[in-house]
Amino acid sequence: MSKVFDLIEKASVGLNLPSLIVSEARSIAERAIREEVSFGFRPEDIAAVSIYIACRGRKVPLLLREVVSATGSDRRRALSLYKRVLSYLDVRVALPRPEDHLYYIASKLNLDQDVVEHAFRLLSEANKRGFSIGKNPRVLAAAAIYTASVLANKPLPVKNIANTSKVTSVAIRLLSKRFFEFAGFKST
Description:
CATH architecture of the largest domain: Orthogonal Bundle
Number of domains: 2
CATH topology of the largest domain: Cyclin A, domain 1
Number of strands: 0
Helix content: over 70%
Strand content: under 5%
């Protein structure tokens, strides 16, 4: 159990996670080990899944692949353990929302507050119209940031937004066309 806790601590420093998430990840790992849900899985897998569940529970929009690479785990094994922990320990995690990703991506890009507020309004409009249903929330947030930056005359390169948000530039361009329509423009 101590190796799992050490891995959680090490990965949390690399991912720059707050202490609240670290303590929650430790309690999830302890519970998974105590109730033998994680039997047969490596400590790296347990640490990755515990951190990921704690982040999802606190609406910190980290991707599983980011957590897996920080802990040195295997993605498939971590995903298998993730499903197992959710079902056996009856843990509830919220689905990621585009707004959560918006603030996370905006902080990494050091965006102006007016661009972030405009992107938030675009996402609200997309939710009202039902446009966001079935779309990747991270792509929605990235496209809203791109559209808002162009409309604010502070255009950011799509490639920068794509690299920061870990989505493709093609996906951002496709969704941003719809956001431009929401803003009253044809498409770029």
